[in-house]
Amino acid sequence: MNPKTENNPYLGFVYTSFQERATKISHGNTARFAKEHGDQQLSTICGLIAADEGRHEIAYQRIIDEVMKRDQDGAVLAFADMMRKQIVMPAHLMDDGSHKQRTGRDLFSDFATVADSTGTYTANDYASIMEHLIKRWSIADVKCESGEAAEAQEFLMKQPARIRKVRISQLQIPPPCLPIQH
Predict the structure, then answer these.
(1) How far is Cα 83 from Cα 133, in angstroms, rounded to an integer?
(2) What percentage of the chain exceeds 70 in pLDDT?
């Protein structure tokens, strides 16, 4: 797994801020679906995982809150860099050794299609996470000192609307994180 954080702590904390919220959403939805379909044990397990992910999310986002106080340009550049590179999860390498041979399709792509079609994790969720982070870190209000950071800020502000126009299955990447179309 290469999260594309290049051993850079800013990139790492942006990645984990996003990833923890995404997994909180997908596990929370799985818990709800399990309960609706009568599997209380699975619902409880997934609910506990979602709650843990929520606590992790808060911790990582607070770290970037502090980075924003000290290095706004650096934080904005890191956020935009991670969104351009596409946040991917370890599961994108998921392979059971037989699915592709049986179906001719990638297991993870099929997984993404199911997650999207069931509402477990969708492009709308991805866009909502971006909006949450943009708001939390007050990206629109940052007074960028460099032209590069100003361009990154503009890029970030446009992405949620662009993402809402596509479905996970169209993006060809599985949940809980999606790539951004450039």
Answers:
(1) 12
(2) 90
User: 179 lies in a domain?
Assistant: no
pLDDT digits (tens, 9 = 90+) for 45-87: 999 999 999 999 999 999 999 999 999 999 999 999 999 998 8
What per-residue string of b and e applies to 36-48 under the rule 16 or more CB within 10 Å gives b?
eeeeeeebeebbe
On whether the CB atoms of residues 171 and 159 are closer than 8 A, the answer is no
Evaluate whether residue 135 is within a structural domain: yes
Position 174, amino acid:
P
The model's pTM: 0.86
In which domain, by residue range, is 160 found? 9-171
- Inter-residue contact 100 to 133 (CB < 8 Å): no
Which tens digit of pLDDT belongs to each residue from 140-165? 999 999 999 999 999 999 999 998 88
17, amino acid identity: S
**The pair of three-digit structure tokens given for residue 59, joined into one six-digit string:** 């911790």
